[in-house]
Amino acid sequence: MFDTGLIEKLVSSENYYKKREEVEKLRHKAIKMSHKYHFENNRFYHDYCKLKGLNGDIKPKDFHKIVIPDGVFKSYEMECPEKNPQEFKKWVERISSVPIDFTPKGMGSLESFLEEFYSNGLMLGFSSGTSGKLTFLPRDEFTRSMIVKSYTEAIDATLKLNKGQEKFILGIPKKTFLQVGYNGRVVAENISPGNVFHAIDSLKADIIRLRMRGPRSSKEKIMNYFIKKMLPRIEKNSIKGIVSNLEANRGKRVVFMGPPFLIINTAKYVLEHGIDAKIGEDSFFASTGGFKGRSIVSRDKMNDLIQEAFGLDPKRYIDLYGMTESNSIMVDCLEGNNKHIPPWMEVILFDEHMEPIPPEGKVTGNYAFLEPSSKSFPGFITTGDKIKVDYDGCPACDKKTPILLSIERLPRLESRGCSGVLAKTVAD
After folding, report:
1. 218: Cβ–Cβ under 8 A, 6 or more apart, which residues?
2. Of 10-24, 173-187, 391-405, 414-428, which gets the smallest average pLDDT?
3. Does the reported pTM lie above 0.70?
4. Which of 87, 252, 291, 299 has an alpha carbon 20 to 30 Å from 312's alpha carbon atom?
5. Residues 201-230: what's their mean pLDDT?
6. What average pLDDT is seen over the chain?
7. Cα separation, 133 vs 218, whole angstroms
8. Measuring CA to CA, which residue among 326, 323, 242 is closest to residue 285?
9. For the chain, first and last CA: distance in Å?
10. Residues in Cβ contact with 14 at an 8 Å cutoff, skipping those fewer than 6 apart
């Protein structure tokens, strides 16, 4: 049985401030519960754990053994899932911990194929790397609800949201199965229903795949030609829409979230055109995904641009770190701009020999996480990122959680991430 009540208790902003030992006890209980559920309901995970000599009952000393490679979620063999609906369904069934009780038809577009799954209760949110092969994560209704709760609780621990009153301006698509777009939309609409502006209306999976992997046929070459022609106009119109909304909310509290390149280009547009877009001092900007696919701009330079263009204290600009495979984000605190690891996530760092590193002091290693809130797939995953964590916590604020000091992609691994996909997709 999957104990949703236990997960609801764990995923709470209050746990940022409780004693670590108290939260760890609750988190470990949830991880053991979630592991047993997936061991009994997920064919791939069951076989994987058996190979490791594990069964349905584990102890914390076994936690590092249950993480699965993130590559599992793009391990299907067909190039175009929509053209092989039954074969793809079998793959999804093997990695999913919830039953799939419908027969997909496929054969149309990838977007319509994903719509089939979504209309039958399972969202296949995706991201992609430079290879263009999409990573699919099967999320049922409960797992999707935990995205909303996890994001909201993490942000609320830092910013104290005015639920129902926030004005959101999002530099992400309104309709998409790209995970970052979906996450941003559902979280914002849950916090302030009907008070959300999207700079981009929709971004279809077929276009993202085409832009990431390149055209494979004459038809796709023609499509790609016309898409490239339209992209500069799409980005320009997105910026104009954002600026128009910022002007309309001059002096008011605004939440502006988007990939860093869009925040930068919006600021430059405001300054170049002499527009007064000075918003309320209690507003905040949030970026996520880094600069994959775009020129890197330093944090100091971004701070200067945001302050000059929007009149916002740089401390009100926060950066977020998350992954397609995760239901959660790590959020900068306002006091020190340090990213805090959510108390409902267990972070495990591995050395170059894939041996776990003791969670003490400042540690750098290959990043894996245990997130028990995922019901439809095991949220115990090793990633392609190398991070540095300070387990002693934040010197600037009163949260009790460890903080993230640095992030880098491991060598020889493709660049990936939703913001990177968005940056490359809309690049001319």
Report:
1. none
2. 414-428
3. yes
4. 291
5. 83
6. 91
7. 20
8. 242
9. 49
10. none
